Design the sequence.
């Protein structure tokens, strides 16, 4: 078969001393950390849209990426080439999973029928390639935001025909995800949100969004799709206000409509920071509520206020993310999907390799640090100690629900003396974290 990335051989683990930029220094797939191999902890995934379909367009300029299919003009031929190239890429990068939107795979047709036909042809190629290589589908989804028909939303469009059209696309995307053995299915809110309340019936839009999710759940049951449904929160962009703002808002929405049994979260780092949270906050909030399903592994830029979708290189962030993921007992059936794109100026194919290597090494390093930190118990013991007053006496009675305001008032009046507090020791703990990251 034609080789699309001849300039790169299979990327191998060479250890921390290696200066080879096309080698892993920390990601050693077979190395066991705690109870699992790194491969099984991290469950890396390639995002088809950024890595294969993305051309580097931005608001000010056209596509900049140099890709092996540049000389082709037939869009279906390009789609076929991309399918083959994606598996070569995953093989060379040792990435076991991938994710896609329906129309990342093939161009949209003039009609829905034609779109289905285009996508089906590529799905058949991908199915073969999966069987040959053992690569797996982490999740599928439908792109319900790119085409102008979705300008006012999909499931939350004021136009019922758009709702119906979106349903047809999700139905097909679910069929495909099932056919390819996808382990999850993602709903990212696309344009489900609003620009101004002056033209928006928020109640109807939210009711309709819930109806849409109900239909998806029902259809999945009907076809026997047993993958995990995930919602990917994001506070803004493309709309001014996205309904799936953050994990807390999505949970409230799911509970309001009785949908909470069916969905977990796909937490994206850059979406967390856009919501004014840290990545770790969103992971923690999802984890303690039992809904940490999967992760879109990327990072934003502190100085830019939008979803820059950069490859994750910040070791602090990956360490604290892996800390939450380990405490979650892992992510499976979710994984770490690189919803990240190379900068527009990193236009050569080899940049795709550098980018994924940097992300994989950053998470592998974070995994090892987080594991050591958890094994030592230094942080967890400190936290346990900090809340020890709830383990006995009045604290225990508060937790067990034995006391109310009256009993608590009596307790305070009986023990009427200044309360002794202890320091939160934030700086000491930050230094402990540094010690683990650096040693
Ligand atoms: C966009 C989202 C998108 C989803 C998949 O901001 O991150 O890429 O992950 O639709
Ligand atoms: Ni994403
Ligand atoms: Ni994003």
Sequence:
């Amino acid at each position: 078969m034609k080789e699309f990335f001849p300039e790169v051989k299979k990327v191998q683990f060479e250890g921390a001393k290696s200066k080879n930029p096309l080698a892993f220094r920390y990601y050693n797939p077979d190395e066991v950390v705690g109870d699992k191999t790194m491969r099984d902890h991290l469950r890396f995934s390639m995002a088809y849209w950024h890595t294969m379909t993305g051309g580097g367009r931005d608001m000010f300029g056209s596509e900049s990426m140099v890709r092996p299919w540049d000389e082709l003009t037939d869009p279906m031929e390009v789609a076929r080439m991309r399918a083959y190239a994606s598996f070569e890429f995953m093989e060379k990068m040792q990435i076991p999973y991938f994710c896609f939107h329906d129309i990342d795979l093939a161009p949209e047709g003039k009609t829905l029928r034609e779109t289905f036909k285009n996508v089906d042809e590529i799905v058949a190629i991908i199915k073969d390639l999966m069987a040959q290589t053992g690569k797996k589908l982490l999740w599928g989804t439908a792109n319900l935001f790119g085409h102008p028909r979705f300008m006012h939303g999909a499931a939350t469009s004021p136009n019922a025909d758009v709702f119906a059209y979106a349903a047809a696309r999700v139905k097909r995307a679910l069929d495909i995800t099932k056919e390819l053995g996808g382990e999850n299915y993602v709903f990212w809110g696309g344009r489900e949100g609003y620009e101004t309340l002056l033209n928006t019936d928020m109640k109807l839009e939210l009711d309709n969004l819930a109806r849409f999710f109900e239909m998806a759940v029902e259809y999945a049951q009907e076809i026997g799709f047993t993958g995990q449904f995930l919602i990917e929160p994001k506070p803004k962009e493309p709309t001014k206000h996205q309904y799936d703002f953050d994990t807390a808002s999505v949970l409230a929405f799911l509970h309001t409509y009785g949908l909470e049994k069916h969905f977990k979260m796909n937490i994206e780092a850059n979406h967390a920071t856009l919501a004014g949270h840290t990545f770790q906050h969103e992971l923690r909030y999802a984890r303690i509520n039992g809904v940490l399903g999967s992760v879109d592994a990327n990072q934003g830029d502190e100085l830019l206020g939008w979803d820059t979708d950069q490859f994750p290189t910040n070791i602090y962030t990956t360490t604290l993310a892996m800390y939450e993921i380990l405490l979650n007992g892992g992510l499976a059936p979710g994984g770490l999907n690189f919803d990240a794109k190379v900068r527009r100026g990193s236009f050569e194919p080899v940049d795709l390799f550098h980018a994924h290597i940097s992300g994989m090494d950053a998470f592998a390093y974070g995994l090892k640090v987080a594991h050591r930190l958890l094994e030592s118990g230094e942080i967890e013991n400190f936290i346990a100690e900090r809340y020890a007053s709830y383990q006995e006496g009045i604290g225990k009675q508060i937790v067990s629900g034995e006391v109310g305001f009256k009993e608590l008032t009596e307790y305070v009046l009986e023990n009427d003396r200044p309360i002794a507090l202890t320091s939160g020791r934030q700086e000491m703990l930050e230094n402990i974290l540094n010690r683990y990251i650096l040693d």
